[in-house]
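Review form for a predicted model. The reviewer records the input and the model, then writes brief findings.
Reviewer: anonymous (R2)
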Amino acid sequence: MKRTTTLMALFAIAIVLFATACKNSKINNLENTTAQKIVPENLKWSERMMLSEIERFPEASKLDFVDKPRWSYTNGLVLSAAIRVFEATNNQKIYDYIYAYANELIDSSGSIKTYKFDNHNLDMIKSGDVLLYLYPKTKEERFLKAMETLDNQMETQPKTSDGGYWHKKIYPWQMWLDGLYMAEPFHTRYAKEYIKDEATKQKIFNDVVLQFDLIQKHSRDEKSGLLYHGWDESKEQQWANKKTGNSQHFWSRGMGWYGMAMVDVLDFLPENHPGRERIITYLNQYAEAITKVQDASGLWWQVLDQGNREGNYLEATGSAMFVYTFAKGVRKGYLPKKYLDSAKKGYDGIIKNLITVDENGIVNLNKCCAVAGLGGNPYRDGSYEYYINETIRSNDPKGTGPFIMASLELNK
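Model under review:
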C-alpha cells in the first residue's frame, strides 16, 4: 500500500512538472512570436501604420515607390501624418524620419533638391508643411529659406482670369480639386506665422478663400452637390465640357483632397476672416453630398456616383480622406455630430475590407488608386474607363497618410 501511495505521489508530481513545462513553452512561444513582430500589434492603428510606412520606405525621400529622393506632395502628406503621430506618441523614431527628409532635400543654402520653381506646380507646395513644423524646433535658417521659396511660388503662380491658381504651369487655365489641398493649408499657415506686414497677410488670406469660392462656382454640380475633378477656363482640353469647362466625372480622391483642404485651412484662417463662414458652409454642403454616395459597406466608390456600374470599385484613398474630413469636421465643430457616424462607419469599412496585417505585424492598406489626372502625355481623357483602369495597388501613400490621420481623429 505504501509503495502504491509513493508511486501515485510521483505520478502527480510528474503531471505538475509536465503541465508547468507546457505552460512555460506556450509563454516562450508567445514571447518569441511577439519579438518577431516588426510592428507591435498592441499599438493603435495610427502608429502601427506609420511604423509600417517607415519599414516599407526607410527613406522618407523615396515614399511612393520611387528609386531616387524627391521633393513631392506624397512625402509631405505622409510626413504631415507622421508629425501628428509623433505629437501623440513621442516616438523618437518617427521624429527622426520626419527630420531626415528635410535634412536630405534642403541644402545648406536653403535650396530644395529636385524642386523646380519655374514649373509652378502646386503639388510641390505640400512638403512645405514639414518645414513649418521643423523650423520652430530647429531654427535652421535653410528651412526658413526653403519656405520663403515656396511662398514666392504662390505669389507668382499663374492664375485664371478670375484669380484661380493654375494647377501647374503645364496645365494652363486649369483648376483641379487636388490643388487646394496641396497649396492652401501651407499658404495660410505661412501667412499667419511668418508674414509680418498686415496688408500682405490679409491679401494672402483673401486669395486662399478665393480659391474655395472659385472651385464652388465653377466645379460644383448643383444637382448632386458633388464637385468635378477639374475645370478648364479655356474649354480647350479634350476632357473639358465645351459649355462648362468641367471634366466628366466625380472622382473619389479628388473630392477627398478638397474635403481635407477645407478642414485643414480652417486651422489657420483667422476666426474673424469673412471667408471663414463661407468655407464652413461649403464643407457642410460637401458632407451632405458625400454621405449620399456612401456605400452600405461604409466605403466610397472610385467614381463616386456610379457605384453599380461595371468596373467601379470601393477605393481606399478617397474613403480614408472622407473619414478624416468628417471626423475632424465634427471635432472642430464645423459639422453636425451626425457626420461622426458616417466617419465611424467608413472607418469600420476600411478596417474590415481594406486592411490586412502581415505575420510580422506590418499593416497594409489595399485597393488604392495609384494615380489619376487629366491631360498630359500620354493623354488622360477623364472618362469613366480612364478612372477605373488606372493602376490599383496596396500602400499608396495617398491612402496611408489619410488613414493615419483618420485613425488619430477617431483615436484608433
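Findings: The chain has one domain: 44-409.
Further findings: The longest helix spans residues 2-36.
Recommendation: see findings above.
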